[in-house]
Amino acid sequence: MTINQIIRNTIERLKSEGKVWTPDAYAEAFCIEAKKAGVTVEDCSGIDRFLPLFDKKTVDEIKQYRVRTSAELIRFLISKLNRLSPNEASMLLEQLCDLSKKMAQSIDILHNPEASALAKKTITVLDAKAGVNQIDYLKQAWNNFLSIYDDTFLRKLAPHGEVDTNNLKKTIEGLKFEAAPETADVNAKIVRMLITSLVPSIAPSLNEEAAQLSKKLKENPEYVSADSFEKEVRSAIMMRIALDKRSVEEMVHVLDQLLGKLSIQLIDLIEKSENSTSEIQNVKRDLEALEGNKPGDFKSAHKRLYVIASALEEKVEVLSRDLKVHNSKVTEMGERITTLEAELAHATQASREDFLTKLANKRAIEEQMIIKDAEFSRYERGFCIAMFDLDYFKAVNDTYGHEAGDSVLIAFAKILKQEARTSDVVGRYGGEEFLTILGDTDIEGGKIFCEKVRSHVESAHFMYQGKRIEVTVSGGVAQRGDYPSLKALVNGADERLYDAKRKGRNRIEPA
């Protein structure tokens, strides 16, 4: 049960019992509801938190007189003062008055008008003197309470109603938890993102199944809550991927056909060149034979030479024309090949890059981990896996909206890339979870890197629409040499990340 539910139950109890809304009545009802809900609240412990500050004799007397509330404790101490010597009583009274003033000042800031008015009156009355060492310790404790008390937690109620820091009752009674409009707005944003994700990145158009799902989502955004929604989305995404793969295969097929045609044309040119060379070889042989046949055979040789030269000239002209035609075709094919290569490179890059943070996506990270693991097995090159998760990220989305959440993810990705080396692999593993592969790094080096990232995030100013968003990150790091397999290594880093979350967040494990 949440604290808001306990507060609402407390208000209902006071109304049903018809009690006056005094601080004591509210505190008593709140502690009863908290105990029923199994929630431990320090303020409900009554005077038990003060007992360790007294000596054993005084504690026994307090129990004997059945003192239960702070007011009864003050009256008991005043009565005890009257039984002490004048000097000791005067010192104790002075310290007791200072202690009571600190308590009254503390009550004055607890957002209750009746308690605030009573506290101001108490401060005026207690302008006397009191005290012994034990009471002085109590006074210091209350002084510390005043120093660290922070009421900004009330701002979390702002989305549900007007927050009046001077009147807690008015704030609680004015809270509204109708979430339908917000849910509808969130559904609309999800629908827009889904429709965009269903559009193929390479293929020119949607398939019929994805088009029908997109139309259904546009007409009824609430369909995202239907039982069959997940199955339909999975099917549509698989079809989108299949369309992209088919388009890439078609591009490669066209490229292969172009290369085939180019090969045929080059072979034709070579064959033509070989024929011409053969004719030239015949001319050479005739000229060599001419030396042994004397000038009387020169006319026949000259005639043969002329015939061959004429034929060669004709073939060269034909070859020249063919070369011009082929050169034009080669240029055209080269331009088309360049275009196809650029499209193919873009498609390959898109399939390995996270669309939001521009870091490596999960598929690319897993491919790199397999490569690193192979190097470890073959050459014993150690490496570490560092996993990070933004703390309370859901609260950022709920408080500031998903666009603010996306802004935080992009900013964190930049920090992670700044702190990593150029040889490290940095990627988004899913949602608000990120993973870094640290090559040639042992566990101590991995912990140093993770702590640098954590410290950088803690000191950074995450801003959205003029508002600062407090962001922290938890991390877990593991080295390959401590685990029998790559899968065990990833699970180990994930378990260390869970340990960091469990131990309070904003930390790195192993510490």
Please give the structural blueprint:
Elements: H1 3-17, H2 23-36, H3 56-64, H4 70-82, H5 86-108, H6 113-125, H7 133-148, H8 168-173, H9 180-198, H10 208-219, H11 229-290, H12 298-350, H13 362-379, E1 383-390, H14 393-400, H15 402-419, E2 425-430, E3 433-439, H16 443-459, E4 462-464, E5 467-469, E6 473-479, H17 486-502, E7 508-509
Parallel strand pairs: 6-7
Antiparallel strand pairs: 1-3, 1-6, 2-3, 4-5
Question: What are the main properties of this structure?
Answer:
single chain; 511 residues; alpha+beta; 4 domains; 5-stranded mixed β-sheet; two-stranded antiparallel sheet; 17 helices; 65% helix; 7% strand
Structure description:
The protein has 4 domains: 133 residues, no CATH class; 73 residues, no CATH class; 95 residues; 148 residues, 2-Layer Sandwich (Alpha-Beta Plaits). With 511 residues, the protein is α+β, with helices and mostly antiparallel strands. The chain has 17 helices and 7 strands. The two termini are 32 Å apart. Strands 2-3-1-6-7 form a 5-stranded mixed β-sheet, with helices on both faces. A two-stranded antiparallel sheet has the order 4-5.
